[in-house]
Each structure stands twice: as structure tokens, then as C-alpha cells.
Amino acid sequence: MSRSIPSLEVGVSKQVTRREFLNLLGAAGGTAAALKAGSALGLLPHTAQAATLDLRAANPANRKVAILGAGLSGLTVAYELSKVGYECTILESSHRPGGRIFTVRHGDLIDEIGNRQYCEFDDEPHMYFNAGAARIPSTHRNLLAYCKELEIDLEVFINENKTSYLQDPALLDGKPIRNIDYTTHTRGFLAELLAKSLSAGEMDQPFTDPEAETLISLIRSFGDLNEDNLYKGSLRAGYASGGFLEHGAQKDIIAMRDLLKTQMGRQFLNANEGDTGPMLFQAVGGMDKIIEGFTNHVGHQIHYRSMVNAVEVKDDGIDIAYDQDGTRHLLQADFCFNCIPSHIMTGITNNFPTQYVDALKYIRRGTAYKAAFQAKERFWEKEDIYGGISWMNNPSKQIWYPSAGMHKQKGIMLGAYDYGDGELHTAMTQEQRIEAHLTDGEKIHPNYRNQVEKPITIAWHRMNHMLGCSARWQRDRNGWTHEEEELYHALQQPVNGRHYMIGDQVSMHSAWQESAVMSAQWAMADLNQRLMA
Amino acid sequence: MLKTFLAFGLCMACIGGTSAAEPEREPFDDRYCTTCHGTDGRGNEGVQAPRLAGMEPWYLRRQLENFRADIRGVHAEDREGIAMRPMATKLTDESIDDILGWISSWDYIPAEATIKGGDPLRGRGLYSACAVCHGADATGNESLGAPALVGQNDWYLVTQLKNFLAGYRGAHPNDTYGAQMRTMVSTLRNEAGILNVVSYINTLSR
Predict the structure, then answer these.
(1) What's phi and psi for A149, nearest 5 deg?
(2) In chain B, which residue's Cα lies nearest the Cα of A360?
(3) Can you give the three-state secondary structure of A50-101, one letter per residue?
(4) How far apart are CA B87 and CA B31, in angstroms?
(5) Which residue of B has its CA nearest to A347?
């Protein structure tokens, strides 16, 4: 994989801090030099383009590739290797490509073991639900590069919406409040607190006078404090009335003591930070348009309903036994790229090395759960909500309003997303799940029950041929252990230079499409390097 | 397109009733077993699904019926049972017959020993209580309703013995054989006893 390496070679003595070095460099070489060096030192984000694979053409005697699983990583491999002359065969155990990139539309089968459903949404282009991957951050440049190359239309995904709701039974007797009320008042109170401590003379000591002045003006602006550095409410929360032809009237403040009754701010205030901080996108018409972009090129290579039975890595190739239409078949290949979920791969006969198998067994499977409803009318638009997420302190956790189809009659809304531990809903019957989401949702939208219909639920832990959502490597929230890193690197390496595990499961940042793409690119680049050696 | 094409070629009882104007819906059947239990029914530690190949049809039937009747897989701590039960809940008698026939076509290959830390010598003593029903060679006894233990995944045996001991399995009033197991498993006393007895079972000829 090529990376843009800044041309400036830098040597930093241990006596000089990196920041001091940058200051010096900035003085000598100007801002551009400092920026370039900062990137090399890891202080600034890389401005590198997406990785460009420079794969050499396949050797005719060594060009058969078996790809196990038609998920995004498998399709990435098929697409790239086909370009340079490899002969790829993709074995997919289910009836569809895309794995956890799964857009549900009218008539689709949701093949949950023990809870099969057909989607009965109206048959219209905007009436779809992204049951798996749903967001593409603008920093996920490898995935975005494929979207560009494959001409996938993208549109903005609305993640945070200031008019959406926050609801917690502990807060104001469970009355839902708008995002903007919570954030405006919380910022106001935090700012007032900070301003007070700053003027108390302790905090400004490390700062010069001009710095302290800037700081206090920043704090004042952050929280919309008055000249006395007090928070007395803010028009930022919107108007109680008026605002256009008449003066806008300020809303009442929600007391800090009341806001402190909810713990949800911890998640809520981070909703547009981290992974979901950059501008987010979705594929127009459903996330599986990305998959379609790949299958337009390599779809003919996919064998559906083909379950792998055994993988044997040999000195001169790989034998793959699989079942299709009640018959056992043998696929012989020179190389194999395997995105079968680790917890399913453990049940497939193989001759992998012990540590490799240990790594497969170590990964736990995610339990994420989603549910969606068809709304008979886009009732949220009457509440000034267009796209975005409402947060609830109940097991359904979130409601997503669609980012597309504005002002149409109907829409598909997410009615529950348990991204952490979906086992509660997974263990319920379909009827219990739906009732739970209706009960939860009507805490925000009182008439919800009558406004929505045609529910679907997706318990990834039970989806046929998946049995799990994104891989979980870490046992400890605080970070990866040394043992975990070793297992991860063992699994990333090929068996006998021929068999690669791929997918977001072979990344340190599972659950993102970018990780699936990058794991595939890493594996192909590694193979390429071995073949060049 | 593809889906229409795939709509044919499947063998099992498909649901029907789609209107003529609509494209054919993706068919399905009840042969879900292989996703968890493996294409040859040899079990999968990764999802804690035991081997079915070689399991006695009468035992399999009883368990499927127990799952279906909410006799097994209902205790909140029986995680694997909870995963299994919703699948069985949907099965008709015909589906169960079909599945049993299908499973009987799989070759029996004994599972590898995986557990560590047990003492087979101590386990041998403990096994004498088990041998009454399951046989000295652990090959089971249909007339007593006792399945074979030999060749089964050892991690599965450990989990089930723990579940019996803790009352996660076998506590339902209609689970006659489960109640017997609960009585007998008390002789193993604790996890160490369970590991010992399963290590001994691992030494028996497979």
C-alpha cells in the first residue's frame, strides 16, 4: 500500500519537544514546512489520499483465488484482483451479497433464525432501511474512493439534529426536551462555572493576560454568558414565540439541577464527535448501492447458498470444500481471502496453526440490534425535525428520522438501535420487540403507536449465516492487552502465504466499512509483496 | 434477476402465496441447523453449538420437543439454550422429522478433546454414578433415555453439567429426564468435579 511520505526528513533530539521543534521549523521554513513535518510526527492528521494498490498482474500459473464471503471485504478483493487478471470465485453462504451492509426494502427476506420476516414496506425508492452499515464518515477515504470509482451517489447523513429529542424518565418527569435545550443550557451552566473559577484567580495563573482575556471571551461565547459572566438563558435554544415578524421571546431556562438528573449527556454530547464527528454520508437509495457497485463488476463470480465445509491450506494451494444444492463441491485455489465471521470459521474444518485458531476463538461476536417502522406520515417534520437522532433512556435507545425523502408522504424510521448489547431485544419474540419499541417511542412521540406500521427487527446475533454483529476483540474497555494485540497480528498474517482472514473483524476498529476495505487492501498488498519477493 | 433465479432450486417446504404481479420472494426452509452446528453437524465452539452428527435421533427429538414446549432454554442463565429455543419454537412435527432424517445422514466423527485442568483419574471415580445410565463406555442407553457422551464436544458437556448443577437446565416440572440428571449431577458437586468427569469421558474410546 503506498502512502504519501512527507519529503522532509526530520530528526528530533530528545531534548527538544516535538512542539518546540515545530515552532523552530515554522520560523525557518514557514507554515507549510511545519505542517508537513507535523504530519510525519503524528501531530497532525495525514492529508494522504486513499491507499492506492499497486498490484502486479497475476501470474497465469498462480492466479486462482477463492474468496469466502461476499461481504464488503470479499468484494473489494474480488474487484481489485480481477482487475489485474486473477480468476476469482466467491462463495457466499446466504442468498444475498453485502453481509452486514444490508438494506431492507419491500419484499426482502430478513433471515433471522427463529424469526424470519418479509419486509412489507411500501415499494418506493425512499422506503428502505439500512439494517447494518448506515454512515460513512468523510475521513473514511478508502471506502469513499471506491464510492467515487464505482460512481455511487452519496448524500449527507444527518446524525445530530438540534430539534430532535432527549428523553429520560429521570429528567422533568420524562417530558422529552429538544437537543438544543439540553445543549444550550448545559453549555451555559458549564461556562458560568468555568468563568467563575477563572476569575477566582487560580486558573488564569498559567496564562498571560492576553491569553486569559481570549479564554474568558471564549468561555463567554461558548455558553452565551452575559457581561457579568452569568448564564441567564439564551436565544440559541430557539424562541418560545415570535422571532420573525415580532421579537423572539426567550425560552425558560431548564435548571442545571434538573439537567443533572439525566446521565445521558455523556453519550448525547458525544454524538457528533469521534467516528461520527466528520461529515457523514449515506448512499442514495440505500447503503447496499455500494455493494451493487461492486457486484456490477464481480457479481458473476458469486456462488450463493454455498456453505464452506472445510479449508485446507497446502504447500501448493488451498482446497475448499463447500456445500451447494445438497452437493459437496471442491474448489481448488492458489490463494484464499476469507471474511467468514470468526465465530463461524471456528466450526469449519481447517488446518490452521494453533495461534490462528486461538485468535479466531478469542473474538467475541457483537450483539447489535436494530428495528424500523414505516411511518404512515412523516409526523416528525411537523415537529421541525428533518433527519437526525432522538435519544431515549430506555432499551430502544434511539429513533432515527430518515435523511432522505423530505416532505414525501411516508418514510422509514429507525425505532430502536441497541449498539452495545442487543441481547435484551434479541431474546424477545417479534411481538414483544415491537411492543417494547412502541412503548419506548411513545415517550417521545405520544401518538407513535398509531403513526407507525409494518415493523421489522434485525437481531444480528441471530441472523442466518452471520450470528453476530461486529467483532469484539477487547475484553477491557480501557484498551487492548498485549495478548490481544498478539492474537490480532497473528490473525492478520497469512497462513502459508496463501490464506488471509479479512473483514472488519481483522482490524482494530471493527463495525466500520472502512475497516473491512482496509483489511482487504492490507491483505492484497501483503500478498503482492510476497509475490514480488 | 438474481433473486428470481434463486427462488427455484430449493428443496424444502417453501411458503407460497405471493401475488402474480410481485417478484418471487426469497424462499426459506427450516434446515437452519448448519449455520450454528456446522455443515456436517460437527459442532462449533465459537457459538457454543454442540455436534449433532452421531446424536441419537430419539434424543434429538426429545430435546427439540423440549425446546419447542419451553421446557428447555427458558432459564435466563442458559445462554446457549436461549439461543436455540426460538429456532425450535417454529418447528412443525414434519420439520422435526425432516431434520432428524437429514442429521442422520451426517457421518459421525468424534470431537477433539479441548478442555484443560481436569483430572481423569478422579473423574473415573465420579463417572461410576453416570455409568448407571450412560453406560461404562459412555455410549448411552436408549431404554433409559440416556444419550451417548463419548465423542461429544467436551466444552458442551461441561456447559450442560454446569447448567444442570445450577438448575439452569432440568428444573422444569415437565423435564423428567432433566430432573434425573439434576439429582445425579449433584454427585459432581462443583466445577472441578465436572472438569474431572469430562476429562475422564475424553479418555474413553471414541
Answers:
(1) -60, -40
(2) B46
(3) CCCCCCCCCCHHHCEEEEECCCHHHHHHHHHHHHCCCEEEEECCCCCCCCCC
(4) 10
(5) B44
pLDDT over 90 (residue A485)? yes
Residue A167's SS3 state is strand
Q: Please name the residue of chain A whose CA is at the shortest distance from the CA of residue B24.
A: A107
CB contact (8 A) between residue B86 and residue A365: no
Grid cell in block for residue A533: 519477493
Give CA separation, A157 vs A138, A139, A369, A390, A401, in Å: 11, 14, 20, 15, 10
Closest of A465, A402, A462 to residue A433, by C-alpha = A462
SS3 at position B53: coil
CATH of domain A103-163+278-286+368-462: 3.90.660.10
Listed in sequence order, the DSSP H helices in A224-325 are 256-259, 265-268, 288-298
Which is nearest to A347 in space by CA: B34, B6, B109? B34
Q: Is the Cβ–Cβ distance between B91 and B30 less than 8 Å?
A: yes
pLDDT at A298: 98
A83 neighbors A108 (Cβ within 8 angstroms): no
What integer is the mean pLDDT of A99-119? 96
Cα distances (angstroms) measured from residue A65 to each of A97, A223, B52: 18, 59, 32
Distances (CA, A) of A130 to A36, A85, A154, A210, A413: 39, 34, 14, 50, 10
* Structure ipTM over 0.90, yes or no: no
Could you give the residue range(s) of every CATH 3.90.660.10 domain in chain A? Answer: 103-163+278-286+368-462
Residues of A in contact with B106 (CB under 8 A): none
pLDDT (average), residues A115-138: 97
Domain A179-261 sits in CATH 1.20.1440.240: yes
- By C-alpha distance, the chain B residue nearest A116 is B28
d(CA A55, CA A63): 13
Q: Is some CB atom of chain B closer than 8 A to the CB atom of A467?
A: yes
Q: How far is A318 from chain B (nearest CA, A)?
A: 19
Residue A211, number of CB atoms within 10 A of its CB? 11
Task: Express each pLDDT in A444-463 by its tens digit.
Answer: 999 999 999 999 999 999 99
Task: Record the cell numbers describing residue A109, joined without a space.
Answer: 427476506
pLDDT of residue A4 exceeding 50, the answer is no
Q: What's the rounded Cα separation, in Å, for the pair B33 and B39?
A: 8
Q: Are A338 and A331 in contact (CB under 8 A)?
A: no
Q: What is the mean pLDDT of residues A311-321?
A: 98
Phi, psi of A339 (to 5 degrees): -110, 25
How is domain A64-98+289-362+474-532 classified at the architecture level of CATH?
A: 3-Layer(bba) Sandwich (3.50)
Q: How confident is the model at residue B206 (pLDDT cuts 50, 70, 90)?
A: low
In chain B, which residues have their Cβ closer than 8 Å to the Cβ of A343? Answer: 44, 46-47
Give the separation between CA A436 and CA A396, rounded to whole angstroms.
8
Place of cell 414434519: B94
pLDDT tens profile A15-67: 444 444 445 444 555 555 545 544 444 444 454 467 778 999 999 999 999 99
The C-alpha cell at B44 is: 462449533
Q: How far apart are CA A167 and CA A432, in angstroms?
A: 22
What does the pLDDT read at residue B27? 85
Q: Do A344 and B3 make contact, defined as CB atoms within 8 angstroms?
A: no
The nearest CA of chain B is from the CA of A121 a distance in Å of: 14
Has residue A195 got a pLDDT over 70?
yes
Please name each of the domains of chain B with its CATH number: 1-30 (no CATH), 120-203 (1.10.760.10)
- A457: CB partners within 8 A, 6+ apart: A110, A112, A115, A117, A369, A370, A371, A416, A425, A430, A433, A434
Are the Cβ atoms of A307 and B34 closer than 8 angstroms? Answer: yes
